[in-house]
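Contributing new records

If you add data, match the layout below exactly. Sequence lines come first and carry their own label; structure lines follow with theirs. Keep one chain per record. Anything else will be rejected by the validation script.
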Amino acid sequence: MPLPESWSAEAFNQVPESENRIHSDEIARAYGFRGGLVPGVTVSAYLLHPAAVAWGRDWLERGQAHALVRSPVYDGERFRVEVEDPSESAYAARLIDARGATCATTEVSLPAAAPAPPARRGDPLLPRDAERPVASREVLERLRETGLRALRARWSESAEITRYLRDAKAMAPVFRETGLANPAFVLGLTNWVLGRNVRMSAWLHLETRSQHHRAIEPETELVVEAAIADLFEKKGHHFVDLDVAIFAAKDDAALASVWLRAIYRLRPAGRPA
């Protein structure tokens, strides 16, 4: 089996008009950033690209990864993913921006078999026009007790995130040749299930521990269940940890499971840490 290799490309912010305004230049600059941030799920996809290239569908059937976004990546800027200690079943990697800063890191492995998959709980589905409370510690503590409602989604060419590079043809062959869901979309589901349960004006996707159970085929209808695992405050930022499971709506088969850490409320600009 091929070894994962280092690679480089140009960062791509697919969603400058997203409801998450941290991806817009105006709001991102108000929080002290140089411009709209490339989504954390996209940055994570850059770290996982070597796995998709080297291991193809095997990666999407049983691969696992821990990805941590440490600092912003900006649209149009060059980056390099440096793969370290590659083998036929594992590697570590760093994403380095044009200034030489390490912006994100990952540890990736390809076990001989995926662990036992999660089972659907049967969480109530979110109505498409569901009213959403503004995210706050009080609201999220209540949802931690009562449970989040499940998100309906679909992997298709009309999905919110269909590629992690501006040129879709530059993605890993397993995505451009088969149409299987890429990691930016898969990890994006963790953001969207939270964002459809509560309203947030600007938030940051920071860290994931993900496990693939089955590749997501084109036109697959999905159900995403999630539960709040932890809530805490640090340096003025408000964090949420989420346990997420992604299922095929047709037969309830588990496709992926992800632990997410995100900042749902940023420290106000100008306030000291």
